[in-house]
Amino acid sequence: FGGRFFVTSEQSPHNPRRYTVREALEDGRIETVGQFGEWPTLRAAQARAQYLAEQGYTVQRDGYMQELVRA
């Protein structure tokens, strides 16, 4: 979404599939946005990724803390 955000899916053997929003940074790193496996449905994760892209957000990290800021 917006050439920057995308969604991945994860599923462990005994749990339902969950979705994670990620951001591709200009330096090639990939950052998780929010919590790993935060979204229960693909549609919800895609809506979040699209919103972040449309509003011009990016993730800033300081160690384990993250903050969404407008780029």
Radius of gyration: 12 Å
Q: Class by helix and strand content? A: alpha+beta
Number of H- or I-type helical stretches: 1
What number is the mean pLDDT? 92
Please characterize this protein's 3D structure.
The structure is a single chain. The protein is α+β, with helices and mostly antiparallel strands. The mean pLDDT is 92. A hairpin with a 5-residue loop joins strand 2 and strand 3 (30-33). The chain has one helix at residues 42-55, and strands at 5-10, 18-24, 30-33, 57-62, 65-70. The strands form two sheets. A three-stranded antiparallel beta sheet has the order 1-2-3, with helices on one face. The protein is built from one helix and five strands; from the N terminus they run βββαββ.
Task: Summarize, please.
With 71 residues, this protein is an alpha+beta fold.
Topology:
Layout: E1 5-10, E2 18-24, E3 30-33, H1 42-55, E4 57-62, E5 65-70
Antiparallel strand pairs: 1-2, 2-3, 4-5
Task: List its salient traits.
20% helix, 71 residues, alpha+beta, single chain, two-stranded antiparallel ribbon
